[in-house]
Input
Amino acid sequence: MSCKTSKNLPPEERVLLSSEIGEVQNEGAPFKIISLEVIEKTVLKVVVEYSTGNVKHEFKCVGSNMISKSLPPIRSVTLVHNDFNDQPKIKVQKTIYFDLKPLLYNGKAIKLNFSNTSQTLLIEP
Output
């Protein structure tokens, strides 16, 4: 069983989660990134697949405090999955949207290097 979502939900129909700057102790429960793309300049659309039972899972987008000195600068980012000790029964796919503005460098363009995948995305406000 999998959850199907529309390719591009209108902004009023999606939940936009805030990204944050901080340190990640671990990436949490296992999950797979199906796709990762920037839409609307500073909105990250992520399709993930994970195993679930009957507990609501939480995902976070956490950017490192450290930024590499390059043009544009590069920030490491980790997607974190908290399953709240759920007992997995089925695999689902879910589309998640994150506001990337908190990860910008002084409001200017930045490359985000995702540790969960080899993908790097350029964010231009």
